[in-house]
Amino acid sequence: MFDSFRDKDLAQELAGKIKGLSEKRPLKLMHVCGTHEQTIVRFGLRDLLPQNLEVVAGPGCPVCCTPQREIDLAIELARRGNIITSFGDMLRVPGSKGSLAKAKAEGAKVKVVYSIQDAVEEARQNPGLEVIHAAIGFETTAPSTAVAIANHALPNFSIISSHKIIPPAMEALLAGGECKIDAFIAPGHVSAIIGSEPYERMARKYKKPVVIAGFEPVDVLYGIFLALKQIKENRPQVEIEYTRVVKAEGNPLAVQKMDEVFEISDSNWRGLGTIPKSGLRLREKFRAYDAEKKFNIPIEESSRLPAGCICDKILKGLNYPTDCLHFKTRCTPEDPIGVCMVGQEGTCAVYYRYAD
Amino acid sequence: MRFIIDMQTNNQKILLAHGSGGSLMHELVEKLFKKSFSNEILDELADSAVIKSLPREDSHICFTTDSYTVTPLSFPGGDIGRLAVCGTVNDLAVMGARPLYLSLGFIIEEGLDYEVLETITQSIAKTAREEKVKIVTGDFKVVEKGSADKMFINTSGIGIRDKKINLSRKGISPGDKIIINGSIGDHGLAVLSAREGFDFQTKVASDCAPLTGLIEKINPAGREVKFMRDPTRGGLATTLNEIVKGMGFGIKLFEQSIPLKKEVKALCEILGFDPLYMANEGKVVVVASKDDAPAILEAMQKQALARESRIIGEVTEGPKAKVVMETSIGGHRIVDMLAGDQLPRIC
Prior knowledge:
The complex is a heterodimer. In chain A, 38% of the residues lie in helices and 16% in strands. Chain A has helices spanning 8-21, 34-42, 62-65, 68-79, 100-105, 116-125, 142-152, 166-176, 188-194, 200-206, 217-232, 252-261, 291-295, 311-315, 347-354; strands spanning 27-31, 53-57, 83-86, 110-112, 131-135, 157-161, 183-187, 210-213, 238-240, 262-269, 273-282. The longest helix of chain A is centred in the middle third of the chain and has 16 residues, at 217-232. Helix content of chain B is 27%, strand content 24%. Chain B contains eight helices and 15 strands.
C-alpha cells in the first residue's frame, strides 16, 4: 500500500528535481509536525537534499508545547485522589515539581489511554470517582474530544482543555521574523480536518508557499519540490500534495463539532509564549467539563526553561537538537530535561532515535 | 496426584503446598517432571546433578543462564517452555558450543491450572529431546497469588566447545560481512498479538527455534565464522550495537536487504513499532570475512531454519562504534540501541 510512496527510484528522481530547482542562496523550509520529522530522519531524507536547503522542525509536537502549568494541574488533581487519564507521552512531561509518571509511581491514579473514549469509559466504570482527561493535541485529536464532551460526557468526567490549533502558531513564527522561513510544509492530518483555507491568509500576507504534505518519504520530497517550484516561479500559495487524504474543504463535520464545543482563545505554548487565538477553550455551555473551572485549583505558571535547555530555540527551528549541550548527555528519553525530548515526536526525541 | 478442584471450571489447581518441599511436591516431581524428563542423571534426584564425564576432554565449558517471564504463556509458534529450552540452548550455540545439560527452575503462582503446567512441561521435554539436551536438575516453587504472573522459568545451560574456537569481537575487521538467517521481528509481534488479542486475518508466528543444528552446518571446511550472536530482546538493532560498542569499527546496514515478512512490516506500521527493535527467538547474526561470506551464506541457505538468509550489511572503518543504515530510499540514518522499553516481557 505504501510501498510506492517509499519507492527508491522515485525518491531519487525527486531528489534530482529538487537539486535542479535549488538556487545558490540558503533556503529554509519549516514543517510543524512531529511525524514529518520522524519520516525525514527515519528515511535519511536530509542526505538527499542540496547543501543550501535546510528543512527544520517547528513546534510540531503538542506534548512538547503543553505548558508546565497544565501538567502541574494534572499532577495536583491526581494527588487529590482523582483519576487522571492521558496519552502515554504526557506521563513524562516535566511539571514544576516532577511529572505524572512520578505521581503514578507514588501511588496516584494515572492511567494511559489510547483515546478519549477510553477515558469516558473509565468514568463510567468509576461513578464514585472523578475522572479528568488531559486533552492535548492539535486539530487531529480535537474533534474526538468535542464528540466525547458533546455526546458522551458524564457528571464525573472533565478535561484539562489543552488543545491548540496550528495555523496561528505558523503565522506567529512568520510575524516574529526570527526564523527566516521561506516556505512551510503543512501537516497532512491536521489539514485533513481543517482543509487548506486556514493557511490562505498567511500565504497571501507573507507571500510564503504552504504545501500540505503526507507522511511517506515520497510525499515529503514531493512537498519540498512543490514548495521550491513555487519559490522559483514566485507564486506563493497554498498547495495540497497529500491529495489522497486532504480536500480543500477539509472535514466540515469535524470542524462543525469542534466549533460546537470549543471557542478560540489565546494560548500559552511552552517555549514559544502566548500566541493569540491559538487555543481551544470549552464554550460556556460545556464549562462544567472544564477541570480547571470545576476544581478551582490555583496553579502558577513558570516560563523558565531548565538551565542550558534550548527547547524554545529548537521549537522555533533556530537550532538543531545536536546544538544543545545536554543532548544525549544529561537529556535522554529516559530522563528528559526539556520537553522536546519527552514526546515520541518531539524533535530531540526523534533525533535521539535516528540521527547523529 | 492431589489438587484443589476449581468449582466453576472443574480444573485442577496448583497449591502453595505443591512448592513446599513436602509430599505434594514429591508427587509432582515423580509423576510429572521425572516422568517427562527422565535420564540417568536426573533420575538420581540428588541435591545436585553429577556429571561424571564430558563427551570431549579437550574442550572448554560454556555456561549460561536465562529467565523467562513471557506473557501470555502460549503464543502462535511456541510457548514459555519451548522458549526456555531454545533461548538457553541458543546462547550456547552462538558461542560455538554444543549444548548438553540444562537446569530448570519454576516459580508458579498459586492457583495456576495443573493442565497448564503439564502442557508447558511436555513442551520443554519435547524441545529438549529434539535438541538432545538433558534436563538434569530442577527446582519448583509456588508463591502466593499476585506474587508472580502465572509462571516464571529459569534455565541454566552447560555446553562444551573445542578449545581452538575463539569467537571474539576482536577478530572482526572492516570489510567483513553481516549475515542473518531470516526475517526479523516475528517473535515480538507474535507475542504482542497474542497478548493484546489482536485478531488480524494474517497470523504472525514466533520464530522460536533451536539453532544448534544450523550453526553446526555453517562452518564449511576451510571457512570460518568470525562471530555470532542471537538478536533476542532489543532486536537486531541492539545486537549490532552490542557488536560495535567500544570497538574501532562500525557497521553499515542495508535496509533493502533485511528480510522482513510483509505481515510483520504491515503490523509494525499500524502499531508504530520498528522491526529492528522487535525480539527474535530463532535468529542468528553471523559475521564472516568478505571471502568466506558467500560460501557460508550458501551453506546456511540449504538449512530449513535459514532458507531466507541474506547478507544485510558490512563492517566499516567508520563511524566507529556506530551502526548506520542506508534506508530504503537511499538516505542514511543512525540505528541506535533501544532506549527504554518497546515491549515488556516478550521472553
